[in-house]
Automatic annotation (TrEMBL):
Gene3D superfamilies: mth639 domain like (2.60.120.630). This is DUF371 domain-containing protein. It comes from the Bacteria. InterPro entries: DUF371 (IPR007171), Mth639-like_dom_sf (IPR023131).
Amino acid sequence: MSNELLRLRCRGHAEVRGTHAKTVEFTSDADITGRATCVVGVAAEAIGPADPAIAGPLRITMTSGEHRAVLHATGNSRWRPGSAAVVRLSSERLPGTLATDADTSAADLPRELMRTLADPTAELDVRIERAPGPPGGVLVRYRAQPDHDRRLAVECAAADLVIAEDIPSRAVIAEHGAELGLSSQVVACLAEGGRVLAVSTAGLADPTVLAVLAGPDRPAVEVLGLPPELAVSAVSPQRAPVLLATATAPREVPRLVGSRPEVAVVFGAPAAELPKILAEVDRQAAGPRTAAVAVATTSGAERPSWGRAAELRLPRRGELLCRVDAVTQPGGEVPAVDPAGLVTALLADSVSTRTVALALAGQPGWSRKQAYDFVLAVSGKQPK
């Protein structure tokens, strides 16, 4: 089966420079000026499906005559043929963005190729293919709406596995032409570097999805279809009440978080101030807290990160949204969960023993061996 998703056919232009250090662009415009330093091809025409499944890891191959260059990036399922086709080094999915997180900018392309494309008679062939996923795979959590959603259709076509996080989303998946997979297939698909699309219509979460988010082999996560204030919570494995405190002054956040340990707190802060806020939250808690962070824009919030607050790689500029998880360790305000009851419920829901054990091993106080032995004992099997 071919991995090709789409081809773009462009031509050269006398003003092609290819010196931009952050982007590469294939423009549908027939004419440019010397200021368009990111453009490497003009009069771009799409050849292929009207709705290509542009999402997930991509390999983009540019060929003109004897010259060739390859770059890798992450597809943007909002992109549509006929608009600008911009490939960005950043993660920001602005209008016209074909792909983000690229490993190559226009300035990095071979100069021989750029000199060739400065000839208006030159032709540029751009081949866009699906590429292997990252180790651990990609989990896409998608909040669907009742009506047909073109972006969801693209994500369904690009996914290796599509599951429903709640019962109503099963019908939504069928309406978008996708085959409904099983939750029990999630771990194996991610382990092979696959792309798993988990669709929901409400705030419910599939137990397997939460187990994967809590496990040690956590995949990359994308959150689509939610406003930034909610998207930042969708990467956390914790199910806890959420206090939305985006109107709270950043300097007041540590006090608020410390006074409400039983809830997760979502707040906004400038990137320059967030490290100090999280450090104070940890100090008041007398121990590490887990948190999620996202850029406070619709496109920026599609790629939140989660982990220990002190270890998060934070964006360096702009306004951010942060969720500090509730206290769940012994001594916190959240009631302790009965692990035997939780494991029994997950196994009864056809979640594999491996998935349950990995999730349990990711919790404080559990080693991987202890978790496996415990899950096997609860399931009635003997530990090896």
